[in-house]
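In the laboratory, one determines a bound structure by crystallizing the protein with its ligand and collecting diffraction data. In a computational setting the workflow is compressed into a single prediction: the sequence and the ligand go in, and a structural description comes out. We illustrate the idea with 2-phosphoglycolic acid.
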Amino acid sequence: MKNIVVLGNWKSNKSRVEAKAWVEGFFPELSTLPKNLTLIICPAFHHLDLFLSSGFSEYLGVQNVSMYKAGAYTGEVAASMVAGDVRYAMVGHSERRKYFGETDEMVVEKVKQCSAANIIPIVCVSRVSEVKKLRELVVDFAKSGGMLLYEPLFAVGSGQAQSPEEANSAAKELVDVLGSVKILYGGSVTPENVAGYTKQEFLSGVGVGGASLDPQTFTKLLVHALQNTSQ
Ligand code: PGA
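The predicted complex, in structure-token form:
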């Protein structure tokens, strides 16, 4: 049975009231989640406690961590500050690179901070060439469960997903460069198209932005993600 990873990235969305409504709408579904699903939810930092108080830490991730260890870095959240609360951290999302000037060098530092805090990094890349620079790092973190979230820029938030076959061949190229590492596809994944990705040989799952914001849509997406994965 193929294990499928589905990561929900809330990005910069949801007030307290909205986050609470999501948690209440989604939690009844948790008890029926199949065993071959690895679910990861990445809300904003200040909503983490909503999930933690509901016993959700097993599924919890953050969208970013500081490249620095804890200290005098106003506005930053160090990996060590969420250690023990979350299992995963996204690092180097294309929106972080585009709007906040994140570079590969910064991504490397962030992955190091995650490793020191026992947090599994999920490194985001949008081109195969990007990972060439990160090769050694990825080889290392893949051994401890780290994953790559491959998101071509044109597909992120545009409603224009890359085809599953093209995403699979990009994932194959990534595996050719990096060796064995779990690769997720992200970019306009919906309940309607998700099964096309999860059945691909070189894809271990998907990263979902917009379609993770509504609990009913997200639940539907999870059900469809697992279609044809039982053999
Ligand atoms: P999207 O975002 O599903 O809204 O395209 C994906 C992502 O950036 O993680």
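The pocket of 2-phosphoglycolic acid is lined by residues 9, 151, 156-157, 186-189, 207-211 (CB under 6 Å). Keep in mind that any predicted model is a hypothesis to be tested, not a measurement.
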